[in-house]
Design goal:
The chain is α+β, with helices and mostly antiparallel strands and 346 residues long. It contains 11 helices and 11 strands. Bound molecules: phenylalanine.
C-alpha cells in the first residue's frame, strides 16, 4: 500500500482503537501508539525521504491534516471520559442530603463576663468609661496616692515604656481620668485590659479588670456595701452571702477586701464530704478590692474632700468568668482553642 494511503488510513484506525479504550491509561497508550515519538505517524514520516521531491509537499500537508484530525479524536475521547466520570459521580450523589451547617461564632467568656458585669451596673445607673492601656505614671500611680518609690508599687510591677509612661497595671487610672474631666456627682464603670510583670499558672501578664467609682455628697460605706452586695447577687444568685474584710490600698481609706460565699459549694466548703476545690474548703472566695476614695486622691484631681465622698472598687474579670462558667484553668482563656470557645453562648 502506498504511503499516502497508509497515512490517510490512520485516523480511521485510531477511531477504531478509541472505541475500545477504557480509562485514562488506555487512552494515553493509544495516543503514544499513534502520535508518540515512535508511533505510527512518526514511522510513516520517516519514509518521507523515500518519496520523490515532487511528492513530498503533498505528503507533508496530508501528514499535518492527519495529525490534527487524530489530535481532535483524542481530545474528544478525553472529554467524553470526563463527562462519563462526572455522570457516574452525580449518579451516586444525593443532592437532597442536608448540607454542612454553618458555624456561628460565639462570644469569648471574658467578653461575656464583662458584658454581664457592665449590664448590672448600667441598670443601677452607672455609665461606662474607659481609658488607654498605655498610661502615664501620674494617672496610674501618682494621682492614686502612690508616689515614686511607694512600696505598694511593688504589688503592681508593670511594663514601662519609659520613666513616665507604662502599661496600666490596673483600671484605677480610669478613676483619675474621669474625675479630672468631670465634676461630681458621677457613677462610672470602667472595663479593660491591664498588665503586670506576672506569669504563672494563676497569673497572665495581661488580664482584665473592671473599675467602679461613685462620687457624690454623703456617700458612705453602707452605700458601698449595699451596691456590691446587690451586684454580686445579681451575677451569682440571690442567696450569695457577702463579707467585708479590712485591707489596704493606697487610694482608698478605709479599704476592704470583698469575699462572697463560694458559688461552687454554696458556701458550705465541702461537696459530698470532700473539701470544695474552688474555695479550698473555706466556703469563701475573694472577689474584689474596694474602699472609700482616699482624700488624697480627691485632692490630686482637684476635688474638695470636705465637699464630696465616694467609693471605688476593682474586680478581676477572669475570676468572674471562671466562677461563672466553671473554668478550671485560667490559661484556657488565652489559648484560642475553638473547642473551648465554642461552648459559650452566642
Ligand atoms: N486597683 C486595685 C487592684 O488592682 C483594686 C481596687 C480598685 C481597690 C479600686 C480599691 C479600689 O488591686
Amino acid at each position: 500500500m502506498d504511503l499516502l494511503a497508509q497515512l490517510n488510513g490512520l485516523p480511521g484506525e485510531l477511531e477504531e482503537r478509541l472505541r475500545k479504550v477504557a480509562g485514562d491509561a488506555d487512552l494515553e497508550a493509544a495516543r503514544v501508539d499513534f502520535l508518540g515519538r515512535k508511533g505510527r505517524l512518526a514511522e510513516l514520516m520517516s519514509h518521507l525521504r523515500d518519496l520523490s521531491p515532487a511528492e513530498r509537499p503533498a505528503f507533508g500537508q496530508a501528514a499535518n491534516a492527519v495529525k490534527q484530525r487524530m489530535t481532535e479524536l483524542l481530545d474528544e475521547r478525553k472529554a467524553l471520559q470526563e463527562q462519563e466520570r462526572e455522570a457516574a459521580f452525580l449518579a451516586g450523589f444525593d443532592c437532597s442530603l442536608p448540607g454542612r451547617t454553618l458555624w456561628n461564632g460565639s462570644l469569648h467568656p471574658i467578653t461575656l463576663a464583662m458584658e454581664e458585669v457592665c449590664s448590672v451596673f448600667r441598670s443601677m445607673g452607672y455609665e461606662i468609661a474607659g481609658g488607654p492601656e498605655v498610661e502615664t505614671d501620674f494617672n496610674c500611680f501618682e494621682a492614686l496616692n502612690m508616689p515614686p518609690e511607694h512600696p505598694a508599687r511593688d504589688m503592681q510591677d508593670t511594663l514601662y515604656i519609659n520613666d513616665k509612661v507604662l502599661l496600666r497595671a490596673h483600671t484605677s487610672c480610669v478613676q483619675v481620668r474621669t474625675m479630672m474631666n468631670r465634676r461630681p456627682p458621677l457613677a462610672i464603670i470602667g472595663p479593660g485590659k491591664v498588665y503586670r510583670r506576672d506569669s504563672d499558672v494563676t497569673h497572665t501578664p495581661m488580664f482584665h479588670q473592671i473599675e467602679g467609682l461613685l462620687v457624690d455628697r454623703h456617700v458612705t460605706m453602707a452605700d458601698l456595701r449595699g451596691t456590691l452586695t446587690a451586684f454580686l447577687r445579681a451575677v451569682f444568685g440571690g442567696s450569695t452571702r457577702v463579707r467585708f474584710r479590712p485591707s489596704f490600698f493606697p487610694f482608698t481609706e478605709p479599704s476592704v477586701e470583698v469575699d462572697m460565699s463560694c458559688a461552687q459549694c454554696g458556701g458550705r466548703g465541702h461537696i459530698d464530704g470532700q473539701p470544695c476545690r474552688v474555695c479550698k474548703g473555706s466556703g469563701w472566695l475573694e472577689i474584689l478590692g474596694s474602699g472609700m476614695v482616699d482624700p488624697a486622691v480627691f485632692r490630686s484631681v482637684g476635688y474638695d474632700p470636705d465637699e464630696v465622698s465616694g467609693f471605688a472598687f476593682g474586680l478581676g474579670v477572669e475570676r468572674i468568668a471562671m466562677l461563672k462558667y466553671g473554668l478550671t484553668d485560667l490559661r484556657m482563656n488565652f489559648e484560642n482553642d475553638i473547642r473551648f470557645l465554642h461552648q459559650f453562648p452566642v
